[in-house]
Amino acid sequence: MFSTLKIWPSALPVFFLARFAFASLPLVDFDRMGQVGLPGAFAGLNFFDNSTPTFDPSVSTLLSRSLQGALTSIANTNPGGSISSACAMNDVYYIAGSFLSIANISTSYVASYSPSSAAFSALGSGGPNGPVSAVYCDSSNNNLWVGGHFSSPSPSVTIWSTKSRSWSAPPFEGLNGQVMSIASNASDSSLFFTGSFSTSFSGGATASNNNPNVPYSHGASPFSSSLVPIPLQGAEIVGAPSSTDSQYSDIQTILCPAGPDGPGNTWLAAAGSTALITIRTFAAMSAFGVRVGNTFLSGYGTTAFSVTSIPDNTVQSLTYVDPSTGQSRTCTSNCPLSTDSSILYQDFLFTAPISLTGVQITLSEWTGNAPGLHMLQLLSSGAFASAVSNQNTESCFAPNPSNVTMTGGWSQKTVDTSIPATLQTVLVATVPVGTSSSQAPTFTWMPYVSASGQYVVNLVVPGCNNFQDCDLRTSVQVTVFPGGGSQPFVSTVSQQVPDDVVVPVYTGPIVPSSSSFETTVTMSLADQPTGDGQNGQYELVAGNVELVLTSANVSGSSGNSSTTLGSQRSFGFFEWPLNLKTSVNATGIVPNASETNADVIGVDLYNALGGANTNSAYISATVQHPSGIVFLGGSFAFTTGALNGSSNIVAYKQGSLFSLSNGGLNGAVTSFALHGDNLYIGGSFSDTQTPSTQGKLNGVAMYNVETNSWSALGGGLNGVVAGMGLAGSTVQIVGNFTETVTQAGSSSFAGGFATWSITSSSWINSGGFVMGNFTFIGNGTSSSGQEVSQLLAGNVQMMTEYGATGMVMLSNSGSDDPTVTPLAIQLGSSANNSILASTTRKRYEHRKRGPATWLSHMKVPALFRRQASTSPSILPSLPPTPAPAILAGVFWSNSSHEVAIIGGNFSFSVSSSVSSQGVVIYDPVTSTATALAGDQLYGVVRALYVDTGAHLYVGGEFNLTGANANGFAIYDLVGQQWLTTIAQPIQAQSGSSVVVRSITTSTYKSKAIVVAGSFAQAGTVTCQGICLFDTTLNQWSSLGSGLRGDIYSVSYAGSNQELLVAGGAITLADGTSANVAQYSFANNSWSAIGNPTVIPGPVTAVEVNDGNSSSVFAAGRTNDGSSSFMIYWDGVAWFDIGTTFQTNSNVSQLLMVPLQNTHGSNSIVESDRMLMISGALSDSSLGSASVVLFDGQTFIPYLTSTSAQGTLGYVSSLFYSIANFGFSQQSFLATGIVILISIAIAAGVVFLLALIGILWTLLSRRDDKLGRYENEDDDDDSTQHRPSSLLEHINAATRSTILGTQSPFNQFSVEKEEAAREEEAEPEGDPFGPDASNYLRAATPSDAVIGTMAAEEESSRPAHARYSFDAPGEGELALTAGVEIEILDDRDNAWWYARNPQTGREGVVPASYLY
Fold first, then answer.
1. Lowest mean pLDDT among 26-35, 42-51, 74-83, 444-453
2. Which of 176, 525, 751, 831 is placed for a possible disulfide with 440 were both Cys, Cβ 3.0 to 4.6 Å?
3. What is the torsional sign of CA 754, 760, 761, 762?
4. To 10 degrees, the CA torsion angle through 371, 372, 376, 378?
5. Can you tell me the distance from the alpha carbon of 40 to that of 1212, in angstroms, rounded to the nearest whole number?
6. Roughly how many angstroms between the first and final C-alpha of the chain, as a whole number?
7. pTM of the model
8. Can you give the three-state secondary structure of 838-878, one letter per residue?
9. pLDDT over threshold 80, residue 807
């Protein structure tokens, strides 16, 4: 016998409707559901629209990335084109590379893009005639610098003027090889060009020493010769043992020798003895090194020495220039001192400026009779000035000392410091509180600066503890005049510090002191001084000023001391100051006047590479640290000299190149990104040159400038990095790779674009999903109406607007599309993929379409048919869910806010060596994740549930490392431990494994959970496919007589969820195959819903419409697996609602969701809601979707998703935090109408009060008369003497009106009131029989009503439902027996206003239903 599945009559017109497009997607009201999560097996999501783009990997696509991470396609180049560089200037983006057109605009290699107009433009005519590799936007001069491999309009470098809109050659005419990068120095005053070019400097080129009064020496660098020596006239200096010859025994003579090496200008030690020279200043000073000049007297000379700092007694590591090779070297003990008489002196620098009170210099080795020295100086950090005039003595070789000036009254104050025998002297001035800054004392330092360069100016603020003047301290204004046309720099500094602090007050270029200019640092009272002062007085404190040199600028020097370099060749590096007006030809020979200090980098590179070895080498990236260190990366290797063994990355510091730790990197470097002291490096390497990271520098690395150490970014990437950029506290990385790798070894998909969090030191979600080979990323620009966080470009195969590893959060946005917040963390693949269906990688195309409808094309009566049978159906195989996939979720409120607990097929890195699998707690507020403590789960999680006791129930296909979980486990979220002994394990049928797919609960059985899936029994209880677990008794039990088969989905019906509806491949106990079955908790029995023979096959998803047992939806696959189906139960029969889903479609969840608006009414789905269909869905005419909405007539594609492999993605479910959200939509009256109604009600209330008062007076008088003759007692407790207050009825009605709902009294019936009274009068058999207190609450209105509505204050108290209440009328609140609610208003006898705290819904309920 065959049965027919009917076609729902009202759906028939749908089959014949022509396609039409919606103006926008339906407005799902996610906020009414609380927090909402959408998990699945996907890497990217798009809302269904009319402009889903297709991508051609043969072109280069330019993408914009919003501040939230969403990606949008902007334009494509011509086929074969590429984009390599871009920069922003004046709200315009300039894009360059190797292309002939972009956005169908003909342009050669460079174009402009305006985000405000979304328009591309060519840059005039006469531009580069070859590929462009780099651009730099010089906003101060309105110039676009362009570098690459071209010959016109000038070789390899050209300039586009945004003012004249024309191309021109640079002032240096260009370079003779490819330019690969253009970057500014740390102060943005010069440009660094790098690549594979060479430059020649003329034979007359000079290398200035920067200081006009310092004699030249091959043992010094331009940097070290720029450091002003610290004057030591007042220091204690002892040299011992000293020569007995009085002409050579005075150690003071070598501090600043007045003549050549010889008597009176040289100090010799005693014959045959190691010498120790001790210098003590008895005051703290900042020093950068020592200057040591050897003696060349016959029979004397020092060959090795060391420096120990005082007071920390540390032997310092020193860096110096080897005079014989010009290479930078490092030493600690036995530092070599040249015996070449042409070397006047050598400068030995500390690794960084240090604060000390003296040094000890040990002359440990010598030649001839004894060691000796001709010169000894302590080098400052750059320049300095003391507030105390007599401490500003003249430095050696300086034409004049530092100086100070002041206004107002200043006095000297001296205290002891924590260092023995060390004093601190400052000047102080007092000023009355309230004095204006213009009337207060001022103090000005004028430090002697020997050379121009980049400096950090520090103000040393003496601590108030030592001076015992903390209450007097306030804040000061500091103004720095650096000179050279720079504007003064003003800052405010607090002097309310307990201990000495060094405060930077300026960073940038400073010109040297001269007869016409001196750098000044002026301190005055702040315009808004802080603190209250003491006794009406503030105190200003003047200490020292220190200038720390970070980079010497030779071209800016006014010095005249120099030496001839001879003819020099430079490779791969060229510097050009932006304000330099000189014209030279860098393709020929550059004269000395245009050579800069940094140009020595190119010369050193050429020499270190050996000249001939530069043919295959190149410098592709450069960056300057604020300390002045210049880093260079590319493809090169040094085989000789001090840099021997170093490769691909090198640094330039203090006048010479030096190798990074472990010899650099073992592969080419392509890009840099500098964040503080951390340099992020991209390229094609895997470790340092000398392996030190176990091969975890795969394509990316971090180098710390301060510690000279390397760090891995997790486990790196599985491909080559092409570019890097900074966005806030993240590093954005692009290239040709597909995965990020954690330190523990797990991987996550990243199709050419990855994001590293600097804060959490981990890979995080980039926001959008892409698959491709990217060549560029850079920060964007903002303009009115549009803001671009970043631009990236490359060969794109696939892209979605939103990217996430398996989950996004959804919320209302106020516009058509909801707000999408992707999972911020990166989840990795696990070792469990073997249990999943394999997938094949292919490119998946979406046809261009509008937000159109999916309409059924079935022809009546093309119907499902099946043969009646008692043999069980076979459950269809699970859809592919390759890791990382999130398959289940639940929200749980911890001590502070709601978090999401997510489960699935994934791994998560807990630490550098430990990863967790399957389940994790995700905090959407902090965007962080936490693994469950204790035993580790291994397997796949498919179901999650949290009860009121904070117990997490986990179901799926898994086990625990220390327990027999077998697909089901319980975790204590508060105690943070697995409860392995509470529930007996679930067992599978022979030859199969346990799969738990659903864990739910019914309000009818609130102390139990229902576990469903594929299994045979739980503990000793036989309960195939579905079982009940009592959370109070911790016992399993079967549901009725049980059933046979497998359960996929569970839903509930009835006002108290007293009916359970299960979908799957089900056979009832009587042998009936019923793939949708109903269980009654009250009757403890199973039954088929309708005629089971008309259901075409096993069901994978079932949904009851808002608890209505006469409105059930089910979806699944036919018995032969050839097609999918979707059916509807109307309480009488099953109907086919018709879909055009293709055979590969899988439905994972059906869920009724509320709407913000309404749709056309029909008899299947109410107008205030829609049915959400989730899974992996394909339609023959309209492509694919992962979420579809059904309004009862039309299927509307809503979301599409993509897997990391490029195939159709899969949405497993939608989970939410409010368990019992409502569908009814609130409507609010206009404000004016509400005001008019309020006035009318107020007038009515006044009238009623007056009337009641008159009646009350009359009744009182009558009672007084009756009292004379009657002596009856009043029964105060009788509710029969308490009529319902008319005023309270008005109040309740008014409240309902304001809330936009109908008054509950409009539908109040006599039957309800009589039933309520009968309930009150019948205490026998009432299990909730009231005691005295709850009887009074249930029958007596509050006595707190006072006067008018304005006197009301809303308060609440708890109560419980004695009976269930269906709430048939508007404004009424549905109840289930036993549920706890809050009473908000109990002033009416019969109806109270209440709130359900579990759902947040409010309404009136019968008072007699409560206790």
1. 42-51
2. 525
3. negative
4. 20
5. 5
6. 55
7. 0.58
8. CCCCCCCCCCCCCCECECCCCCCCCCCEEECCCCCCCCCCC
9. yes
